[in-house]
Amino acid sequence: MRLFGTAGIRGTLWEKVTPELAMDVGKAMGTYIEGESIVVARDGRTSSVMLKNALVAGLLSTGKEVLDADLIPTPALAWATREYGDGGVMITASHNPPTDNGIKVFNGDGTEFYVEQEEELEELVFSGNFRKAKWDEIKTVKSLDVIDDYIGAVLDFVNHETGLKVLYDGANGAGSVLAPYLLREMGAKVISVNAHVDGHFPGRKPEPRYENIAYLGKLVRELGVDIAIAQDGDADRIAVFDERGNYLNEDTVIALFAKLYTEEHGGGTVVVSIDTGSRIDYVVEKAGGRVVRIPLGQPHDGIKKYRAIFAAEPWKLVHPKFGPWIDSFVTMGLLLRLIDEEGKSLSEIVKENIPEFHLTKKNVPCPDEFKGAVMERAYRALEEKLGSETREVLTISGFRFNLKDGSWVLVRPSGTEPKIRVVVEAPSEKRRDELFELAYGTVKKAVEEVMKKG
Fold it and tell me: The domain 358-453: what is its CATH number?
């Protein structure tokens, strides 16, 4: 697809994401969605108001009513779409740099558009066959106050009061307008950092990967909190530190919830992305369930296809009983409930329930136009080098070599940025380091050779 990646439309302002594109997507959505009302919202990026207004103009031109929720996190937009609209659109580039922006589109039940719907919408955008409302069919823009009602819905679902002490890092993103208030409504004692909205992201990079939020570990120890929670620019992602200041690997967080839901259901299917690790399989299979891996950016597709009881990819968890969208607010509420109900610290809960594996991730810069050639070259090289050790190869969202000793190597092109992502996991640190040196070096060499060749 020319517009949609693994998480909606996303790219650099003016180069890919423009007001003209936003208006055309608005026209396409207004033509595509059969109902009357579309919920629209934005994150705090400097370009988001501009793009939202262009999108609203496109929607209005097709005769749709626009319900403007303005500055809210993406999970709240998904919830509001289910509650009030026939479709939804979020202006956000999520965890991308401040130079970028993007557009996510939602069905009336709160699900992100499925792959086939994205293809149909994209075809409509490029065809220009938009509905044009008559002058007396053009409707209005109505303000929609979402935050209080959404907080109430999350509180009702989590159904728990706590006295835990929480450190919250909002990344100067849209979550800052909601998370501290939700946590305090639960009874938590909240200390906030980077919790004012600023589209320049002055506090830290918006992606909540460890290297961007490592300072939280020291703050946890100095402040004596029970847990630290960090979000990204639109607050669908969540990262966690335990009470000792240790960063919880993304797979560990997923495994905690996968275990909880599988035990609650007495089995069932858990859907996770291709870049997730073996600890998830261990806890799910032990609890009588099964794990299915799917491409990045398609947890909602996986829920629908496999009737999954839980779905996730790194930092992004879907709780189907609450709603079929990624929701970090439900995740943080349930984490606090889990700590209280277990009567143990988070580090103790993890140690007793989740086995330890060793994982490393790193990106290799790669221009979008070279990704295909790089992936092909890297695949051939790794296939030759790992041949006798390979148990199976998965070819979704790139390629993943599952090895006979339980290790695995994943290489995939980013769907949102000019990067190739390399992920390696192994039972021991030594084995992980050996495999990662091999995989990362192979991809880096492939990029250099393809770019040199032009």
Answer: 3.30.310.50
